[in-house]
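Quick question, first post here. What does this chain look like in 3D?
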Amino acid sequence: MDNHNSGTDRHNKAGFAAIIGRPNVGKSTLMNTIIGQKIAITSSRPQTTRDQIRTVYTDENGQIVFLDTPGMIRETRNKLGRYMRRVSTGTLGDADVIVYLVEPSAYIGAGDEELIEMIRQSGRPVILVINKVDTVKKDALLPVIDAYRRRMDFQEIVPVSALEKTGIEDLTACVFRYLPEGPNFYDEDTVTDQTMRAIAAEIIREKALMLLSEEVPHGIAVVIDVMKERTDKPITDIEASIICEKDSHKGIIIGRGGSMLKKIGAAARYEIEEMIEGRVFLKLFVKVRPNWRDSDTQLKNFGYHDKH
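> Answer (accepted):
Ran it through. Tokens below.
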């Protein structure tokens, strides 16, 4: 056996890991924590992530391309919901290993039962990751592990806290064990396949999700109409449209005297400036597109179409 396995002759591993789980288990937070910067938006509302987002983690062992998926929704009331579901199931087929994220509860609901069945049928190796372990006592994890073990044989079980950044190194080491040998897919300084425009649109949507009342957020999309740097000043001009389904929603998004739109804009601008490391002039518009979530054309216009 070769004992002088130095960094130069170590076999490089590279592959795809699908992060899957019910809405709100912390998939996007976990992915942002692993790569050390924010790519996927997070919020306490289900269905925050609508699309497959690829983030790239590279270290001396090789490269993991994480595929973050929409939370698996059981009831799909419209074409957007069906699209999200298709993205989630399609991602399993792209993966070398599945990272199945759950909360530290021994109760396994119908949604997780359905997910376990899907994962089992995929035939991929599965790592069970119990997230949010900072919210429970250590001995409370044993019944959780026991409950899931009864449902399925997992290759590994890893407890983590995406928020407190614990267990993350154990998880990445674990994922590498199930990846094939081969060259990296992306340059080592690539952290996502998302464009700046796409991330900016998602940041605006995240701030809207955080600030708006319950009934509005599922019915909004954000489109970047203009994103360009000025030639005379180090400022990026961004014009974006927040799309909603009803006139009454438009009123809520704009707020009295434009107050809500200003709040969304200020919060989003701050974060976009952090991302692009420069000044941003952000202009937001609100447009009504009735039932856009059920229109193939509108879904395509807003970026929800099968592209991977």
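The first strand starts at residue 13 and ends at 21.
Residues 259-276 form the longest helix (18 residues).
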